[in-house]
From TrEMBL:
Organism from which the protein derives: Ancylobacter mangrovi
Name used for this protein in its record: GTP cyclohydrolase 1
Biological process per Gene Ontology, one example term: tetrahydrofolate biosynthetic process
Keywords: GTP-binding, Hydrolase, Metal-binding, Nucleotide-binding, One-carbon metabolism, Zinc
InterPro entries in the cross-refs: GTP-CH-I_C/QueF (IPR043133), GTP-CH-I_N (IPR043134), GTP_CycHdrlase_I (IPR001474), GTP_CycHdrlase_I_CS (IPR018234), GTP_CycHdrlase_I_dom (IPR020602)
Pathway(s) served: Cofactor biosynthesis; 7,8-dihydroneopterin triphosphate biosynthesis; 7,8-dihydroneopterin triphosphate from GTP: step 1/1
Length: 215
């Protein structure tokens, strides 16, 4: 295997875990565009025809956005917290955080919603930051399980709350558009820490709040 590719793969692995992803072996934009031209030709079309001439540029720009999570640190997002919460010591739940990610097996989208709850200790984080954390990890190559645990761990480590609960539901296009072709099948993953893990009653409350009071 080519050395650049090898080091790319090694750094991509460490990036997925680290707070500030760094990839010293990142290919140039021109190399990325050339790779898109190769894939177009391999699919069977002519990359030189008019309609496809600008496509490699567009695809690389789209990748910049879809995979922007490799260049953002979850720690930075969560480092601003607010202390004026009075006597509040109960669950904060952010429901229905929609996300788009790409499965690391086929690089096709999986699309769904994340629901995240935590029990703050003295300080809370801005609600939008929970959604930003979901986006950071969603905008990487993922499995749904890894996405679920990365979001949970980032919140758990940064806020040190009494507990974190997460439920992710998604439809995987690799199952809908190709392979087994089961459109409409959804995958649900959950993970709990602290009081959510230790107290089944809190898991029940989390699940009922997810279902309850829908507009
Ligand atoms: N656990 C898990 N599996 C996933 C996820 N996204 C895709 N997959 C599965 O990854 C598996 C890859 O299986 P392979 O047998 O290596 O690849 P494949 O021959 O393309 O598999 P098929 O999709 O069954 O055609 C498939 O079963 C996918 O459904 C995910 O987020 N989590
Ligand atoms: Zn897949």
């Amino acid at each position: 295997m080519d050395a650049v590719l090898k080091s790319l793969m090694a750094s991509a692995k460490s990036e997925a875990e680290s707070a500030v992803p760094v990839n010293p072996a990142r290919p140039s934009r021109e190399e990325a565009e050339a790779a898109v031209r190769t894939l177009i030709a391999w699919a069977g079309d002519d990359p030189e025809r008019e309609g496809l001439l600008d496509t490699p540029k567009r695809v690389v720009r789209a990748y910049e956005e879809l995979y922007s999570g490799y260049r953002t640190s979850a720690d930075k997002i969560l480092d601003r917290t607010f202390g004026e919460i009075g006597n509040f010591d109960d669950m904060v739940l952010v429901r229905d955080i929609e996300f788009h990610s790409h499965c690391e097996h086929h690089m096709v989208p999986f699309i769904g919603k994340a629901h995240v709850a935590y029990f703050p200790v003295e300080r809370v984080v801005g609600l939008s930051k929970i959604a930003r954390i979901v986006d950071i990890f969603a905008r990487r190559l993922q499995t749904q399980e890894h996405l679920t645990s990365q979001i949970l761990t980032a919140i758990d480590e940064a806020l040190k709350p009494r507990g974190v609960a997460i439920l992710v539901e998604a439809e995987h296009m690799c199952m809908a558009m190709r392979g087994v072709r089961k459109a409409g099948a959804s995958t649900v993953t959950t993970q709990f820490t602290g009081v959510f893990r230790d107290d089944p009653q809190e898991q029940v409350r989390f699940m009922s709040l997810l279902r309850g009071m829908r507009p």
